[in-house]
Amino acid sequence: MKQFAALVQCELKVFFRDRTTFLITFLFPLVFILIFGFLMGGEDVERVAVGLYLAEDSGARLLEDAVARRAGLQHELYPSRAALEDALQERRVDMGVVWDGSQLILLYDPAMVQRQGVLAQLAAGLASDFNLRRQGLDHVVVVDREHVGLAAAANWFNMVVPAIIAFSILSAAVFAVSGHITAMKERKILDRLTVTPLRPLAFLLAVVFVRLCVVYFSTLITLFTAMAVFKVDFHMDWPRYTLFVAASTVGMMGFGALITLAVRRPSSASNVANVLAMIMMFMSGIFFPVEIMPPFLQFISRAFPLTYIAEGLRFTTGVIDMAPARFFAITAALVGLALLLLPGLARYVVRPERR
Fold first, then answer.
1. Residue 329 shares a structural domain with residue 191
2. Quick check: 355 pLDDT over 80?
3. Are residues 51 and 25 in the same domain?
4. Could you tell me if 241 and 97 lie in one domain?
């Protein structure tokens, strides 16, 4: 036990002295959360400011009433179309609506790419409401949106936060093996350990234990930052969350072991891990749903473990629903990956370097 405690203490010192690893583990997910949160967090129609320029007729009153009744939109009247266009150019409004007595014109800035989807839906809704009111009609069917089960917290940013945490787990765990351990192999440090009474398994257990602790702490920092800064609402299942983060960490360390054992030179493992991590980030539904991909890309995404880690974290944070059997199957598969591949890493520690 004293030997293991000493190894853990040494690994902690190495971790905090390695600035690159520290940044990947703690600052990388925070930077992504803050960037996406300030850019697109909580995006919805309630935050859209609409500028109106209306001709003096009965249609103007109907249009203003339609805008006022659209889910609390902020709207402001302008004395001329030129004034409205200036306000749009200066970003004081997100969209302009012009009624000249015979034609409804919708103005928007095409440079606001992140809001075009919201504005297009809003414009279609306003045009439909206005046309019905001019004819003295109302909607025949009213859609009442009601969330069911754990999906009550779901929106775009809620989906992204657990996925960013999943990618940070992947990065920290994979590079603990393909970066940290292979660097020790490259510098002949592991070769020196083979002539000591230290068992390779004890060394690996210390590495795994330290990564489990720092990765879990990093996920909590990321999660609470998103909740505090952007008021993100999660329905946390803490026992399953803790279990899944631990399983994901050891599973991805097993994946890192697979990369390390497959490459010929230790220095190449980190490069291969970087390439695979970037591919998985875009193919595993981190920033956009897998369902919008072409069918053949959806099939490929199912081969990446990051897809299932993101899915499991979304379930444990209450963003999506999942059958308990599927959750525990994913958890067991990640643990099984670690049990299958990490023993091979113990042999790698004492194996002479291949030429």
1. yes
2. no
3. no
4. no
